[in-house]
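>> Question from a student workshop board

For tomorrow's exercise we were told to take the sequence and the ligand below, predict the bound structure, and bring the output to class. My setup keeps failing. Could a helper post the expected result so I can at least see what it should look like? The ligand is coproporphyrinogen III.
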Amino acid sequence: MQFEPLKNDRLLRAARGETVDRPPIWVMRQAGRYLPEYHDAKGDRDFFECCRSPEIASTLTLQPVERYAGLIDAAIIFSDILVIPQAMGMTVEMVDKKGPSFPEPLKSPNDGQYEKIMQKQVDVKAELDYVAKAITLTRTKLAGRVPLIGFCGAPWTLFCYMVEGGGTKLFVQSKTWIYKYPDATKALLQKIADICVDFLALQVAAGAQLVQVFDSWAGELSPAAFADFGLPYLRHISANLPQRLQELGLEPVPMTVFAKGAWFALDELCDSGYNVVGLDWLHDPAEAKQIARGRVTLQGNADPGVLYGDRAAITKTVETMVKGFWSDKKGWIANLGHGVTPFVDPDTLKFFFEEIHRLTQ
Ligand code: CP3
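>> Workshop helper replied:
Here is what the output should look like for this input. Compare the format with yours to find the bug.
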């Protein structure tokens, strides 16, 4: 695939641990409901219909890049982590004001649904071709302005959605599975991990220049359970993706892991085969930098809630990040500690970006 040369490669250089003039900046969920232009472009279309339309997905991906031109250094493809469960044969609906919902979650290993999912051979290329097409079209439209990030959900987080049937506070089903049916859980996690490798390779082949694995629910596991049900599958992805890319004749791309809430595992995550480790806002920047000891680039980690605060609060948060992460002009990608939330004023987010620029000059 031939695309225009990259004019801004700050993100890729920082991810590889190289020195950069200033930290690259982007934020998780930078395309989304807080932007009025998102609602205009989406209209009353279904969320997954937008993901499946390369034209709409690329338009939504570009919105923050255009609004914040010169301030941010990456685009992230408009899609969702739940496209993998869909490709595996599960129905997922996005319910307005409620979030994702699976009408038929996996109830137990003895339930016919589990057998069916385990037996289905998933043709990732065919099932998720629409993501590949959206990535290629977005790369073309970006014309080298900033790099394009591809992503997938981590096996543990996707597993939780598949057994809970949606968001949850108690994780009743997930905990029942890991503590009652550990072998069946691991078999499913492994199947998901293999699909993640295929899917990320497909995204790179289509034009993704860095990939991020979102383990949003890692923090629901104890350190011991994370060692059993989280980390091995994150490692499977980082160990196998480079090999898969090589088989396909593709150059390796930087890989990021974001295991939200797994602050206890930061040291291990720094040795898990990823170039970048994403941090949520529970980490103190300076302490995290000390634990990482230069092994990886850190990404994060302002509390997204600070965007509901005033300018002084934002400045203070950015100062703490800059002081903790930015001592040697490398090893930091500025971001929030989780996605931008609805009702954030886009101009407040702009101020957050401007403060990072000002304080790292
Ligand atoms: O970051 C980006 O701008 C790229 C797009 C992106 C979306 N989802 C779009 C989206 C990415 C990277 C995701 C990842 C994702 N999806 C995660 C991991 C990151 C995280 O937040 O922890 C998770 C857990 C999901 C699952 C999901 N999708 C939930 C729980 C929800 C509903 C709640 C919410 O925050 O909106 C979604 C819907 C979703 N995904 C929307 C967007 C823009 C909102 C859809 C709408 O209502 O219009």
